Amino acid sequence: MAVNVNTVYQTVLYILNKEQRGYAPPDEFNRIGAQVQLEIFNSYFPDGNQVNRINQNNSQNNTEFFNIFDNISYKLTPFIQEVDFILESNNTSFAYPDVDPITQSLNSSVYLIGEVICTYNGNPTQNSQAQKTTKKEYTLLHNSKLTRPNSKNPIYYNYNNNINTSTELPSYSIVASPIPDSIKVNTVKYPTPPIWGFTGGSQGQYIYNQSSSTDFSLDSSEQTNIVIGILKYLGVVVNNPTIIQAANQEAAKVEANEKS
User: Is pTM, for the whole model, over 0.70?
Assistant: First the structure.
């Protein structure tokens, strides 16, 4: 379940008002909220890697609901999606689609590329997992008679494509050999930036508008971290070090509790 953007905003405003620490207008909140969400999202990967090393030493609690690695994996689940890449006009590379073919909505950009499956001879049952290479390795393998890839053992490399105009983040293209009929890629997407939408009231006040709003993409368990993270940045914005100090202390407590 996602984190409700209005709940977060009202909580932030309540804390700022209670402590008489200023005010955060919607545009400022939206920009800071997007940054905080991205920071939390990025933390999953080094944290997961750290916990995985603990798993290898068999020193982690593996009890149901208390497995940290499984909990991090669960938080990433909404961002994992199998995507059909689209053949580009050059007929040699496949691009990540800007528009989701099912929902017809704008896609968020790719954060990571996982398994790449190539289909040949128009038969979806004849799928082959492609081996990732660098562009240099790709050229050497492709041009060698001894190591030239085939439909059972394809290879690929990927590169950042043009900036996705909807997210201002880079997208991806894939070049595979031999050139497949289609490519399906397991991806991790960036979270969609939160938006607290509003309409103007008769006295110039901001009135929450759910239809023009976008909730935080993170799991509901991250609500406290989001609020604390936003308060930390607002402490910088309103030039109040006491907010930064208090928020940092709370963030340290939460992080220590999660990793203990």
Answer: yes
The span from the CA of 85 to the CA of 150, in Å, is 20
The residues that bridge with 199 in the sheet, in sequence order, are 207
The token pair that represents 257 in the structure block: 């509790």
Contact indicator for 64, 75 with CB cutoff of 8 Å: no
Residues 6+ apart with CB under 8 A from 156: 116, 118, 130, 131, 132, 133, 138, 174, 175, 176, 177
pLDDT: which is higher, 152 or 160? 152
Q: Both tokens of residue 90? A: 């050059």
What lies within 8 Å, CB to CB, of 100 at 6+ separation is 106, 107
| HSE of 129, CA atoms in CB hemisphere, 13 A | 4
Cα–Cα dist 192/172, whole Å: 17
Q: Which two tokens stand for residue 233?
A: 């940045």
Coil/strand/helix, residue 171: strand
Which residue matches tokens 């909404």? 78
Q: How distant, in Å, are the alpha carbons of 17, 65, 130, 185, 233 from that of 175?
A: 54, 41, 11, 12, 41
Please state, in angstroms and rounded to a whole number, the distance separating the CA atoms of residues 147 and 41. 39
Q: Which pLDDT tens digit goes with each residue over 69-97? A: 677 788 888 899 899 999 988 888 998 88
Q: What is the pLDDT of residues 197-252, one digit of tens each?
A: 999 888 888 999 999 999 999 999 999 899 989 988 887 554 555 655 665 666 56
- In the chain, which residue ranges form alpha helices assigned H by DSSP? 5-18, 26-56, 68-76, 135-143, 223-237, 241-259
Domain locations in the chain as residue ranges:
2-74+195-231+239-250, 80-189
Residue closest to 9 by CA, chosen among 194, 193, 246: 194
Radius of gyration of the chain (CA): 23
Q: Which residues pair with 188 in a beta bridge?
A: 80, 112
